[in-house]
Records
---
Amino acid sequence: MTKSVRAAIPPNLRLRWGGRFASEEDVAWHSHAEIELVLITAGACDISVGTHRLKGTAGAIFVLPAIQAQYQHTHGLTHTTFIGFDAPPGWFDDRPRVLMLGAYDPVQVWMEQLCDWPILRPAPAPDLARQLLELLLRRVRELDRAEGAPRHPAVSRVMDWVEANPAQTATLDDLARIAGVSASHLGALFAADTGGGPLQYLQRRRMERAAWLLDNPYLRVHEVAAACGFEDVNYFVRLFRRHHGQPPGRWRRVKPTTRS
């Protein structure tokens, strides 16, 4: 099958702290410089932040923005696990919300691991924490999609255009005009939705289309490249190898069921 393509982890994505709460008491008004995730592992609580009052029971995870004051209303003995982190502006949607996790959702394990990370000795490499945090935040995006979180119209317009024009080249400014927003705003919207930029999305969709077309033995490699918007076949081959781990010629010789 086709390998997934992942954008580079932003260098300023940072885990700052973690902790656990076990009490029947409320948590008074306070705020953090970091974005916070709070997972209820037992009991129930509400969290007021801005004009929102979010309600959750065991298995709920709260997304709480930086700076804004919050108050936790605790309903009986309640246990939570929480972490604070920094993320690049626009890379992660930090609007206040609560999402429900299913049984065995990996978010529960990742939250516990990240909570303990700052006190582990010997200290693990910082990059490992960033990788785990990125996995967690990508999973939160998936939960948003599953709960029907609306996609920004500008992002939808670009995605629809990419699907309808697989062979047409485009610059960031071209995509911004299609979206009807500035290039910088479009970049922030895509980062929050997909974890990468609009050009990364365009390139990924081209590579996925190329892999699909290569399963047709009657198409030559240069024809596949042209169908995916690449005039330079050599550049297409290098890019395909980078994305899929092997050149187009070898890709089409390998049975789809044996690919990894």
---
Amino acid sequence: MGYKVKNFMPEATLTFAGVTAAALLKKRTVQSLIRSQFRKLTTGSTEKQYRTVPETEEHARQIINILKSHNITPKLIAIDGLPGSGKSTLGRSLAKNTGLKWRTLYWKELRERFIFRPGYVYENIRLIRTQNLRFFDAIIYLSIDPLLTRQRIIDRDRNGTLADTVDFKRMKKVGDLAFNMLNGEVITIPHSPISIKLKPQSGFHDHKNILHALKSHNINTNPLSKEAKLQAICFGKSEDGILSYFNKTAYQDEIIKGMKAAIKRGIAIEKLL
């Protein structure tokens, strides 16, 4: 028996790895990731070269006009939305036309409270669900169909595997709630996914509104993070961090295919022994 296992395991492992890898390489998302890594080797960056988008430039102009009509000279602007929703392009355009600096936040920076500096347009997919927004003059939220943003991620060749590993519907539901919990009138840009809330005189009071919603659902609020509180309201279970949006069935079909091939190979070897 030990002899059979000894001969079976290396063959089965190689078969599993080969078949699974071949199945993964057929996915457009994985091909997108490979292209981004090749770009990094040749150019030093996974990003495609930034280009201005006329439509986004027009949206930025309209946002600036809205700020001016409310006598707001912005010192801090927040942009939130799903991956692929256009946060970076809009943020860069706003920064260029307002004299502010553009800054994308890294996921690891949102593990704790981030210290925002005046003079910036900050953007991240989890900004409004994790941070204290009291100092921002305007919150911009890009609400786009998860299927569309998924396709955009694949097409832009930055990290296409995010389209597989992230549950975009769950992420959007929490993002929508986080934006809705902010006080203030919703201002939209026609024919765009852009919604804006300007800071009310009394403040956004999102934490207060979240606590009120939790109490109405009879959910214990301590010691939950802001994101965990929002998820508790959405799904009845408090989770936070980027892993809470992980798609647990990502690559399930490819793995099963590899396992079946490995078992089939093992059976064939056993018959020869």
---
Amino acid sequence: MAGLADSGSNPDVDLLYDINGLAKDAPAWFDRVMEYVGEYGLLLAIVLLVVWCWWTVRRRGDDDAASTVAALVWAPLAAGVAVLVNVPIRGFVERPRPFLDHQGLEVLVQGKTDYSFVSDHATIVMALAVGLFVANRKFGLIGLVLALFGGFIRVYMGVHYPTDVVGGFALGTAVALLLSPLAMALLTPVVRAVERSPRVGWLVRGGGRAAGGDTVIPEARSDRAPERDLAA
């Protein structure tokens, strides 16, 4: 099943040339920036977005902090599971990289010799983004935009067909959503146990709030010496 897009009249190939053609017309410095962003930058940005969301949640200390943090823990786990699921898919389809079958592409990253379908990058960033969306809608929407842009860049770089990216998006979304109920059922009790811990509870709930959601008020200390019992 190696030849998913062997024909030049295939819309997948046509779209590949249209998007990758933008790299040919762009300045060399811009292509270098896109190469770094597509290979490392966007993945790092989504990971930092997950960390930012966690920091915001623990600092606010809402009553549902444990379930939100559990969802944030699931996001990178979902990405890892999705990549593992992709291993047999890539081995079964055996689709070569587009630059091996089609001439005239502007390839920004050299040395890609593994199979093209499904895109690992697209799978990882979408699984992270969807997992983040499960935890927090606002941060999740930003993550989804970054993931979509990351998929576009993979085609721009000439290392994936558009359908490689779409397949990665579908795989990442499916794993993050379909396994989310099971993951939350397993992770939430663990996170709640961490929340109740006096040593590491700050990982889940900060901001001076206790596990029950009540504000912790330090006991007032008196500097006055205790009065002597005059009757004594």
---
Amino acid sequence: MDETAASIAEKVRRHEQENAAKVRGLAEAGVTVFRPETCVIDSGVEVGAGTVLEPFVQLLGKTRVGSGCRIRSFSVIEDCTVGDHVLIRQSCVLTESTVEAGAKIGPFAHLRPGSEIGEEAHVGNFVETKKARLGKGAKANHLAYLGDSTVGEGSNIGAGVITCNYDGVNKHPTTIGKGVFVGSDSTLVAPVTLEDGAYVGAGSCITRDVPEGALAVGRARQITKEGWATARRARAKGQA
């Protein structure tokens, strides 16, 4: 049977009351909530003292947030564990993930289930992770996808890097060691391992393991044809 308008309104009223009571409890425990009427905080959520929640934040399910964090506007965090002194910038979506102390997330980052972000690691704008573990101080700051991946301590994932984890039938892992540098716009075709200290040149397609301390470059050699562009424009002008 369809709900009546009155019953829906009653549910909304009860939810607003429960939400307001939750916010008051957090405030009494030392949590700062800006514009609390805009935030959604489920009853099972825990937040440590000194944390700041900006307007339009949603903390859902069994989420636990540590002390001294800042969660900026429009972020949605569901069934996650967030350590102390974590910064989650604007418009991030986190689900069933763990973020350890001192990490920085976003803006516009998406942590899908099974993501584990280590201490002081950075997951930046438009980066998506899924079943990915980033070690202490690892960075993926721009426009990357890390799926079924392990990224070692201190490694740097360049802009536009993608782990190709799905072959159309099965998922495969990518293992990146400590202190690895993966240049921008590279594709890592799983299963593949980049050992400690390896370096991948920008624009590479990596299909084989890279040994410790090695450089891997997988791209075609550049060809430059002098005067080609000028001649093409001249032909096009003559045909106009």
